[in-house]
Design goal:
single chain, 316 residues, mainly beta, Jelly Rolls, Endonuclease I-creI, 18-stranded mixed β-sheet, 4 helices, 20 strands
């Protein structure tokens, strides 16, 4: 299997169809793509602690990659095979940001986190196994630029979902020819929801394969893991986000031939909902750029229910 490497020098903030692709690839060739991501902004802040002096972009994504055969109305299926970490991660508290903004100092506080064969060294007393994941993955929107910081978008972006990890396949809407895929924001490990707004940030290399699903029109991303289908909800309020994600999950049952009341009953018992990442789903107030507006929610359905729907009842 051939691995094509995209270095972090191809990283830039935002998903934007006006940015020329750095690579073209054709699905079905057996090639994998290795996206190297960047942690330069965290290294800078660790050195000087001054947001006003930053030179590196925040949350750049490496790419974009033009996928041959991907047309508007299709979906891109991106399977994550591996995330290779370096030997360093970063913990960081930013002033006025996250759920602990009133508990942490009103200045940048940083910590270098060693990563080695024994694990991720959070403190002198706490070492944990790495659980690397991708915070930011998306395609280009039909118009304008989709931020890779805030908010999350229909095309993906900074969703910060711990399930976007090795073994998962992420399905992304295609709005422009070639999709223009970008990947960034690797975490060595992250608590679900990223309530502090910064996880254990790390440079890494994300190895993926890419397929096109013709005619799979999506209004938001979805994720397939070994056990679950996860439907991402996006909305101006938490309730709107929940409704949209839950509707997408329901529609997936109906598309597979389920009776509406059967799907309703099963979802009431087995489709779990939770908050996703902290970035919101609506552009924030420019005066308060890190205050999320709207919500990202996740809606989890046992994979066996959907994948056996057409062949007979599934038990869970």
């Amino acid at each position: 299997m051939t691995e094509l490497f995209l270095g972090k020098e191809h990283g830039r903030p935002g998903h934007d169809a006006s940015v020329p692709p750095v690579l073209r690839m054709r699905p079905g060739t057996g090639e994998t793509l290795a996206f190297q991501t960047d942690d330069a902004v965290y290294r800078e802040l660790h050195e000087h602690g001054d947001l006003g002096r930053l030179q590196a972009p925040l949350n750049p994504v490496t790419g974009p990659v033009f996928v041959e055969g991907a047309h508007p109305g299709d979906a891109l299926a991106v399977t994550i095979h591996e995330i290779r970490l370096t030997d360093t991660g970063w913990a960081m508290s930013l002033p006025g940001v996250g759920a602990l903004r009133d508990r942490m100092p009103d200045r940048v506080v940083t910590r270098r986190i060693p990563i080695d064969a024994t694990g991720v060294h959070l403190t002198d007393a706490v070492t944990v196994a790495p659980r690397p994941m991708v915070g930011c993955i998306g395609t280009a929107p039909a118009e304008g630029t989709a931020s890779t910081v805030m908010p999350a978008h229909a095309i993906g972006g900074n969703m910060d979902v711990t399930d976007i990890a090795p073994g998962a396949t992420v399905y992304l809407p295609v709005e422009v020819e070639g999709a223009l895929l970008g990947i960034g924001d690797v975490h060595a490990i992250m608590a679900r929801g990223e309530a502090s707004f910064v996880a254990i940030e790390a440079e890494g290399t994300v190895v993926v394969s890419i397929d096109v699903v013709p005619g799979m029109a999506l209004r938001a991303p979805r994720i397939a893991t070994g056990d679950e289908w996860i439907f991402v909800g996006l909305g101006a309020t938490v309730q709107e986000s929940v409704q949209r994600g839950y509707e997408d999950a329901f529609d997936a049952f109906i598309e597979r031939g389920w009776d509406a009341m059967d799907a309703y009953t099963v979802m009431s018992a087995l489709a779990h909902s939770e908050l996703g990442g902290p970035t919101g789903a609506v552009d924030p107030d420019p005066l308060h750029p890190f205050d999320a507006v709207g919500a990202v929610t996740l809606h989890r359905v046992p994979r066996a229910l959907l994948e056996k729907a057409e062949t007979g009842p599934a038990s869970t």
